[in-house]
Amino acid sequence: MLSHDSIWRAIDALAERHRLSPSGLARRAGLDPTSFNKSKRQSTDGRDRWPSTESIAKILHATGASVDQFLALMEPNAAGSEREDASAAPGIPLIGFAQAGAGGFFDDGGFPVGQGWDTIEFPTPERRQGGTYALEVQGDSMLPLYRDGDVLIVDPSAQVRRNDRVVVKTRGGEVMAKVLARQTPRGIELVSLNPDHPNRNFEMNDVEWIARIIWASQ
């Protein structure tokens, strides 16, 4: 049945199918990243707000989905039939790289804390460690490896080794995804994923935390 809830359910399910958040799906389709936010689904007076046919056409084009496939995703159990049992794939916190540099989202060890996180389903059947979270790529600074809207799963408890892909947060508030070239008690050397961006070196006193990327939605 065509309803406000069923259309938004189909949009959410289409994003999940492509391992994207709703905002990542919007960006991939060339829309405003906030187009599908939950806060946009009702007007200020509480009335239901519908997505435009143009925005639906754009996400279908961006994902290669057909109209029939989109209609099938409106069914209440459509998204659930493609996922593992919830106990095997628990939700994990998600935040964008741009927001991750702000204070209040991580503790000193790089584990997620505080409010303002979205949630996505853990994308693989393996059991995750406590503290695992997701970062959504924003912009083109990580091309060609990661695209705008891709989701990176980060495990701050995993051992970090040379040549691992890692996320680093500096005490100055920068958050970046790089390849760990070398780490000593005094500092780290990082190789950029995008050849147009410089490699970076930091003294350990300038690093707030470093965590390994364990999965990406490529």
TrEMBL record:
Keyword set, alphabetical order: DNA-binding, Transcription, Transcription regulation
Protein's organism: Rhizobium meliloti (strain 1021)
InterPro entries xrefs: LexA-like, LexA/Signal_pep-like_sf, Peptidase_S24_S26A/B/C
Basic and acidic residues bias locations: 42-51
Record flagged with keyword Nucleotide-binding: no
Gene3D superfamilies, per the entry: Umud Fragment, subunit A
Region of interest called Disordered, as start-end residue ranges on this chain: 25-51
Phylogenetic lineage: Bacteria, Pseudomonadati, Pseudomonadota, Alphaproteobacteria, Hyphomicrobiales
Protein name: Transcriptional regulator
GO molecular function: DNA binding
Domain of life: Bacteria
Peptidase S24/S26A/S26B/S26C domain segment(s): 93-214
